[in-house]
From TrEMBL:
<keyword id="KW-0694">RNA-binding</keyword>
<dbReference type="GO" id="GO:0043527">
    <property type="term" value="C:tRNA methyltransferase complex"/>
</dbReference>
<dbReference type="Pfam" id="PF01170">
    <property type="entry name" value="UPF0020"/>
</dbReference>
<dbReference type="GO" id="GO:0030488">
    <property type="term" value="P:tRNA methylation"/>
</dbReference>
<dbReference type="Pfam" id="PF02926">
    <property type="entry name" value="THUMP"/>
</dbReference>
<dbReference type="InterPro" id="IPR004114">
    <property type="entry name" value="THUMP_dom"/>
</dbReference>
<dbReference type="InterPro" id="IPR029063">
    <property type="entry name" value="SAM-dependent_MTases_sf"/>
</dbReference>
<protein>
    <submittedName>
        <fullName>THUM3 protein</fullName>
    </submittedName>
</protein>
<keyword id="KW-0963">Cytoplasm</keyword>
<keyword id="KW-0819">tRNA processing</keyword>
<feature type="compositionally biased region" description="Basic residues">
    <location>
        <begin position="145"/>
        <end position="154"/>
    </location>
</feature>
<dbReference type="InterPro" id="IPR053943">
    <property type="entry name" value="RlmKL-like_Mtase_CS"/>
</dbReference>
<keyword id="KW-0489">Methyltransferase</keyword>
<comment type="similarity">
    <text>Belongs to the methyltransferase superfamily.</text>
</comment>
<dbReference type="InterPro" id="IPR000241">
    <property type="entry name" value="RlmKL-like_Mtase"/>
</dbReference>
<feature type="domain" description="THUMP">
    <location>
        <begin position="199"/>
        <end position="308"/>
    </location>
</feature>
<dbReference type="GO" id="GO:0005737">
    <property type="term" value="C:cytoplasm"/>
</dbReference>
Length: 519
């Protein structure tokens, strides 16, 4: 409980979990589509923040009752669900992008000759079981159309435009440097010179060969390609899952990792896309596509899929971006790591735009969340993001105005206005010393932060989950405050191309009133 100054408590109604039939109805699926969904099963692939694959698998088991398989390619999990569960799949908090798996080859043997290897990929198109995945895609489309209409209606309101224009700093640079799985879906490199820019990347910056280093320990090359067939743009009649004649537009996105392939991702996407167009008689379209076919190649593992998300699901809470806005999916993983319990008081002492406390308040409404920052601009952004969340809640259920158990305060991280031992959990994204602060300042800041966090946390049961890229400085600081913090777990993650770590710390029983000289 803060010392001095009042709290604002906003009552929250517990989230309601609809049944399968209700979910299908809420998604806008008709009775026939819902019935068909009840009979279909789908293998879903999901990209997740690297390092939090196990966390995502646990969430899938908990909320969908399905066991997940973690891919050898970091940042992906696979699980099987009935197609009628698609609405619940889209409500998962730990996944970025979703796709339905057409077929997976765990040990695909590529020919050494480039022409032969590419010919095999072309021939593969005709052998793949497309029927059920396309039905799943169509059911998913019904869900997506309803969401899109609601989103367009919200964006047209004057209040939304006013808030968006008040954002201050745009987080585009940070969004473009998020983990590699997001880049694959959002920033493809156009093969055809006539291809339009991606709406999420207005700068239109593209690499000539589309090659960049993948963010993993093996430093394999990963290429992101947006490709269509070179065989022309003459459209034929594509068939939807229910047999209605319609000209479908498509693109192929290829993601390749490995140094033993004789071809580039550009070439694989081009030839595979040509075979897809010839097989379905779809129209190739680089930007306004209906179907996005995914070709994921990781060493000898090949997965062909159809995308179910147009943009990453992490874009759900933040409308006012700062220089280092944290992804909501990563924030969820950090919060889940500390296992919040009802009535816990959770503090983010360096909240920035509020990504962590907002995600916490949305998913753990029976805890109380306190966010703070020393920057008045950051506090203002966080408050605006909370207002956006409240407006979104009102849109979902206009009959009841939902609140959030969250308070935002401007404060000094080294002198928090909180009583000693009053906090159960501290979760925060610490300054990396790159965009905010400096590595030199971190040598003084980190030990002071850890000491103050130790003071406010409950001895014996308190815990902290801290994200930082400045691992050397953090390890030194932690060794200096070992009398109040014990490291329980370390999760290695990728944040905007940077190798960072999430540390789970547990509070010892020792009192932390006294001030110590650290260095």
């Amino acid at each position: 409980r803060p010392a001095g100054g009042g709290w604002v408590w906003a009552a929250v109604r517990p989230p309601r979990q609809p049944g399968m039939a209700e979910a299908a109805g809420d998604a806008g699926l008709g009775p026939a589509a819902a019935q068909e969904g009840a009979e279909l099963a789908a293998v879903i692939g999901a990209t997740v923040p690297t390092g939090f694959e196990q966390t995502a698998a646990e969430e899938v088991q908990e909320k969908l009752g399905s066991a997940s398989r973690i891919s050898r390619d970091r940042g992906k999990i696979y699980f099987e669900v009935p197609a009628r569960s698609l609405p619940q799949v889209h409500r998962l908090r730990s996944v970025d992008n979703l796709f339905v798996v057409v077929q997976e080859f765990k040990d695909y043997q590529f020919k050494e000759n480039k022409e032969d290897a590419l010919k095999d990929l072309e021939d593969l198109v005709k052998k793949l079981p497309w029927t059920d995945p396309l039905k799943v895609w169509e059911l998913n489309n019904s869900l997506k159309k309803k969401k899109t209409k609601r989103k367009k209606h919200n964006l047209q309101s004057p209040a939304s435009r006013e808030k968006l224009s008040d954002a201050g700093e745009e987080g585009g640079a940070d969004q473009n440097n998020t983990n590699d799985q997001e880049d694959c879906a959002q920033n493809p490199v156009a093969v055809e010179p006539t291809g339009g820019q991606d709406p999420e990347n207005p700068q239109g910056a593209t690499s000539r060969n589309g090659v960049e280093e993948e963010d993993n320990e093996q430093s394999d090359v990963k290429v992101e390609v947006q490709a269509s067939s070179e065989s022309g743009t003459k459209a034929g009649d594509g068939q939807t899952g229910e047999g209605e004649a319609k000209v479908l537009r498509f693109r192929v996105t290829c993601n390749r990792a490995g140094d033993k392939h004789s071809f580039t991702s550009n070439e694989a996407a081009r030839d595979f896309g040509g075979a897809v167009q010839e097989h379905f008689q779809w129209k190739a379209d680089m930007t306004n596509f209906d179907v996005e076919v995914l070709l994921n190649i990781h060493n000898n593992e090949v997965v062909v899929g159809i995308a179910l998300t147009e943009e990453s699901l992490h874009r759900r809470n933040i409308t006012h971006f700062g220089p280092t806005t944290l992804r909501s999916t990563l924030a969820y993983g950090m919060l889940r790591l500390c296992d919040p319990q009802p009535t816990d008081i959770i503090v983010d002492p360096m909240c920035g735009t509020g990504a962590i406390p907002i995600e916490g308040a949305a998913e753990w409404p029976f805890c109380y969340h306190i966010a703070g920052d020393n920057s008045p601009q950051a506090v203002k952004r966080a408050a605006n993001n909370v207002c956006s969340l409240l407006r979104k809640n009102e849109t979902k259920d206009s009959s009841t105005a939902l609140g959030v158990p969250l308070d935002i305060i401007q404060w000094d991280i080294c002198n928090l206005p909180l009583r000693t031992g009053s906090v159960d959990i501290v979760v925060t994204d610490m300054p990396f010393g790159k965009r905010i602060g400096s590595k030199k300042k971190n040598w003084d800041l980190y030990p002071a932060c850890l000491m103050e966090m130790g003071r406010i946390c409950t001895p014996g049961t308190g815990r902290a989950v801290l994200l930082t890229q400045d691992k050397k400085c953090f390890a030194k600081a932690l060794s200096r405050v070992g009398h109040i913090w014990r490291r329980a777990q370390t999760v290695w993650v990728n944040v905007g191309g940077l190798h960072a770590a999430v540390y789970l710390l547990r509070r010892t029983w020792e009192r932390a009133e006294e001030r110590r000289s650290f260095w």
